[in-house]
Amino acid sequence: MISWYHSWVAAIRIARRDAWRSKGRSILVLAMIALPIVGVSAADLTMRSAQLSVEQDLQRRLGAADAELRLSRMNVPIYQSPDGERFAPVGGYDSYEPPQEENPELLPQSLPAGAQAVKDSTGQAKLRTTHGLLVTNLREIDTHSPLVEGRFTLDRGRLPEAAGEVIATTAFLKESGYFVGSSVNPRGTDHEYKIVGAYELPNALKEVQLIAQPGTLLTPVDKALQAAGVPGVRADDKYLVKVGGADGFTWNMVKEANGKGVIAISRAVALHKPADSDVPLYAQEPKDRFTDGSSRALETAVLATVVGLAMLEICLLAGPAFAVGARRSRRQLGLVGANGGDRRHIRAIVLSGGLVIGAAAAVVGTVIGIALTLGLRPLLEEYLGLRWGGFELRPLELAAIALLAVVTGLLAAIAPAVTASRQTVLASLTGRRGIRRANRVLPVIGLIALAGGAAIALYGTVSEMGSLVIAGGSAIAELGVVALTPVLVGLFGRIGRWLPLSPRLALRDAVRNRGRTAPAVAAVLAAVAGTVAVATYQHSQDVQSRHEYVADLPHNAGVVSLADNSAYKDVPAVREALSKEFSPSVRADVERLVVGRPGCDSYSNDAGCGRAEIVVPKDQRCPFSESPHGPADFTPEQVKELRKDWRCAMPRHQNFLENDAVVADEQLLTALAVTDPGAAAALKSGKPVSFDKQNVKDGKVTIRLITDPDAADNARGKREEAPGEDKVLPVYQVPEGVNGWGFKLVLPAATAKAAGMATAPYGSYFALDGAPSSEQRQRLDGLFDRMGVDANVKIEQGYQGDNSIEMLALAIFAGLVTIGAAGIATGLAQADAEADLKTLAAVGAPPRVRRTLSGFQCGVIALMGVVLGSAAGILPAVGLRLAQARETERFLERAITMGYESSDTEIYVPIAVPWETLGGLLIAVPLGAALLAALVTRSNGALARRAAG
Question: Which of 35, 46, 422, 808 is most buried, by the most CB atoms less than 10 A from its CB?
Fold first, then answer.
């Protein structure tokens, strides 16, 4: 035992001395091992620091209150989980029937008697800023109440005291361009509010919010908006409650609040959760429904796979570097053997090299990770949108992460240690290379792993856990290819007879010295395989998306509209701004039918709001829409037949203006590239044009003006006709096959006016001669900002793929790994071939031979790794695509059972190879590696006499 200890101490001392002497190689290996440790340790610190304790989370949510009460919006007794995140009506959703009306006094009536309470009201409105309009959350709460202490942090300024004063989050000030002392104005009102302070929400740093005293913000803005004929601000109320006493807001009090349809988040319950048997929700519905253990298991499996493959990649990259050190120290190792050391001591010395560098990488990586996290803490908090509860170091977790570096270093040094220990003392002292037979077991294991992994991946294409099984099988298959790498490298050597001198020497050298070539090729293989797999999958997805893409408008046609109807008075100015910047060849102004206030949303049920709807004749309605439970009321055969009925056909396009009937002239047809002359003639003559024959009966269309949306919704729920005033108009029906791009009915303005239907400006459709430039889009957006309008501009440009950056990043990553691995192997080859290079120089070989040979050695290794990696990377991509095809087939089978059958149900899940990416990997990367190696290699070496023997 003592001799074992002393031998390892000596081995570690020798390894530390060698690492210090070869600083360049040591730093390279240390950086490769330490870099992942930096990232993982920093991620662990960030995750743990961002995880708040229960007390910290309650302080930020409840302040100094005992509980927070809010309505469930179900208006019936409920059961809730202890944390208040999940709830369900008593008796379950199957028997739930919502009441017709809500009780606005329900929440105040649910407050415990004698409790101290603070009302917390929130709403949303658009505010004018220096840039335009900004959707902002508005809050009313008594900021001076002790119950709100801890819910927000005042950064500068003071708290609001009177009406007309607000405080704003720092995120609002950043987004709006305002500062403390500025005045803000909600859109649609004349009210101005002065910002007297800035604050932040520790749990939501990116929240754009204003806070005012109760009754000074939401109510005035709501009244002003409604007076202007636009929808007001809907307030959502909560109450912070403090009941006092040592027990606080108990679980029994929570259940009592649930009986009134109120959700309660209690500090006492969160700190001392009741047993599952005391939670009525879990008795009604299994607790497993509210937990997702399978996803956690999947995440753990994926994380373990990624960590394992990352360690394998580092070992494959660092292994040749340790082999370089062992080869350059072979005389020293030979002296150890000559002085009585056996193979165990030789292995211990080389393994100690991995241990020393792994330990150094663990320390350096952990320290840098901690320092990086500390230095970037403000940026990380801003990125996460959360103030940390503190800087939490968990020594055991950091030690486990650091241990990964030590293990990785040891694993990377195993193969070089075994190889060095098998050298004879004479061969080590004379510098000769021993002859060692190839390992016959490893290729067999690799072949079995390759076949088994491929079989598992193919099984995953039909398995329920498809992606996970495919990923596991692909990883096993890739390990099998790694194990087969020495044999595959030998097969590459057979093409050397047809190559010129320098590449033939490089290839034969690589084949004869597979111990250093195979790890480098395997490292390149692993990196390229991952890149090819992701690139193939993404490219196949892109091809499928391009095939499935449905244009919303004709090419280079567009539409401009405002985000809400309340800004209808700004539509003419928006149209002019569009014409000024884009100069469209055609611009068709579109108006909408108005029932009630013109500023109402299209489907609003607010008082004074209504809507206009096209009435489908009863005998032309799809039977599904007339049945209480839709397709469920029919047999599968009936559903299948009805899906073929033209009355039940699904529209291919949806228009952007959310209105089936619009008011426009024949210019709209030109903008939409509708070439039917009959439609243009009809609009010119004042006759409406219909694009949906389902709405037309006897050449006429019925438009119903609904003034009571609630009554209409209730009637539909009872399968009755919605009450309203009908307008029957003769129309022109376009021929079959004419694309209306989502429109069902277009009315001339004169016809709508003659029928007594009011209209309001809504937007414009336009056609361009070419796509607008980025400068034009920016100028138009700037005009909209200065006008203070929230306008949307959509221009049809056809399918636009968005994965080019990812493809480029993957190719660059694979290229860097390839060059690094090939460079390490080339350095090892030069160390091995130094005597041969000196002999070449002695017999008169030109100086460029050394540089050329070095370049080809690097290029050959890179090319072999890229070729093998490209072949290995296709398997997981093919497996995932086949799994997607199988899932699509299952979905379509279920759809066909329900009667969804059309020409669009054909399965199209292509497997497309990204030839551009593969071409770059197969040609550019090996060529670049070869040129780089040739450039950094000295063309002349010092002559020296050959060693005797």
Answer: 46
- Taking only the tens place, the pLDDT of each residue in 648-687 is 766 665 555 566 788 998 888 888 888 888 888 888 888 9
Q: 3-class DSSP state for residue 763?
A: strand
Pull the structure tokens for residue 121.
Answer: 């009201």
Other beta carbons within 10 Å of 300 = 10
Residues in contact with 130: Cβ distance below 8 Å, sequence separation at least 6, in sequence order:
176, 177, 178
pLDDT digits (tens, 9 = 90+) for 283-306: 887 766 655 544 555 555 555 655
| Strand locations in 56-152 (E) | 67-71, 78-80, 87-89, 116-128, 133-140
Instruction: Quote the distance between the C-alpha of residue 789 and its chain's center.
Output: 30
What confidence tier does 169 reach under pLDDT thresholds 50, 70, 90? Answer: very high
- Spatial distance between the Cα atoms of 418 and 432, rounded to a whole number of angstroms: 17
**Structure confidence at residue 141 (pLDDT):** 93
**Strands 262-266 and 67-71, sheet pairing:** antiparallel
**Conformational region of residue 299, where left means phi above 0, alpha means psi within -120 to 50, and beta covers everything else:** alpha
Average pLDDT across the chain, whole number: 79
8 A C-beta contact, residue 466 and residue 459: no
The strand pairing partners of 463, in sequence order, are none
CA distances (Å), origin 463, targets 397, 466, 476, 871 = 35, 5, 17, 24
Distance separating alpha carbons of residues 672 and 168, to the nearest angstrom: 45
- Give pLDDT, residue 906: 65
| Better-scored residue on pLDDT, 538 or 167 | 167
The phi and psi torsions of 705 (rounded to 5 degrees) equal -95, 110
Q: Which amino acid is at 617?
A: P
Residue that the structure tokens 């995953």 belong to: 460
pLDDT at 100: 60
902 pLDDT exceeds 70?
no
pLDDT mean over 150-165: 91
Q: Could you tell me the two tokens for 226?
A: 């409604």
Q: How deeply is 142 buried, as exposed, middle or buried, from its count of CB atoms within 10 A (0-12, 13-18, 19+)?
A: middle
Cβ-contact 598, 758 below 8 angstroms:
yes
Check: CB of residue 789 under 8 Å from CB of residue 570.
yes
Q: Which pLDDT score, from 0 to 100, does residue 211 have?
A: 94
238 to each of 120, 250, 302, 498, 720, how far by Cα in Å? 5, 18, 41, 82, 38
The bridge status of strand 116-128 relative to strand 611-615 is: unpaired
In the block, which residue shows the tokens 């807001």?
249
Q: Are 387 and 202 in contact (CB under 8 A)?
A: yes
CB neighbourhood size of 773 (10 A): 9
pTM, 2 dp: 0.67
**799 confidence band (pLDDT: 50, 70, 90):** confident
Instruction: Give the dihedral sign, CA 438/441/442/448.
Output: positive
Distance between first and last Cα of the chain: 40
Q: In angstroms, how far apart are the furthest CA atoms of the chain? A: 113
Rg from Cα positions in the chain: 37
The strand order across the sheet containing 732-733 reads 732-733, 689-690, 745-747, 661-663, 586-594, 758-767, 557-562, 791-795
Contact 175, 130 (CB under 8 A): no
Taking the C-alpha atoms of residue 206 and residue 286, their distance in angstroms, rounded to an integer, is 36
The DSSP 8-state label assigned to residue 122 in this structure reads: E
Contacts of 377-386 with C-beta under 8 Å, sequence gap 24+, read: 377/49, 380/46, 380/50, 381/205, 382/205, 384/46, 384/50, 385/204, 385/205, 385/206, 385/207, 386/50, 386/202, 386/203, 386/204, 386/205
Q: Are 592 and 610 in contact (CB under 8 A)?
A: no
